[in-house]
Design brief:
Layout (H helix, E strand, L loop, with lengths): L2 H28 L11 H34 L17 H6 L7 H10 L1
């Protein structure tokens, strides 16, 4: 990976971190409990409970992704950043731009998915 690609990747990671932080703020708002004294119908309350559960799962996922992206940004200047953990070959720049938190090349990720 050359310096230009590395800088492009760092900008993409920073942008994605900002997007995830906004998503987290929105999800935190939607996971707030509905107060029992708020007058809504029984079915609407059930919908609110289900939506809250879905939002909580999304929030947990977004927080985990944020940690991965922050880790990727911190290590982006390391000489071995962008190398596959398994085969040690370079991960395609397009893959890193799409999924900067990835630590596996396409072949190794597919193999890991088939094994799991």
């Amino acid at each position: 990976m050359n310096d230009g690609q590395r800088e492009q990747l760092k900008v993409a990671i920073s942008t994605r971190i900002d997007e995830i932080r906004e998503e987290i703020a929105s999800l935190e708002e939607s996971t707030r409990p509905v107060a029992p004294d708020v007058s809504i119908g029984r079915l609407t309350r059930m919908d609110a409970i289900v939506n809250k559960s879905v939002s909580e799962a999304g929030l947990q996922s977004a927080r985990a992704n944020l940690i991965q992206l922050q880790r990727a940004l911190e290590t982006a200047d390391d000489p071995d950043f962008g190398e596959c953990e398994e085969c040690l070959k370079p991960i395609a720049t397009g893959r890193l731009l799409a999924m900067p938190e990835t630590t596996l090349c396409v072949a190794c990720a597919a193999a890991a998915e088939n094994d799991g």
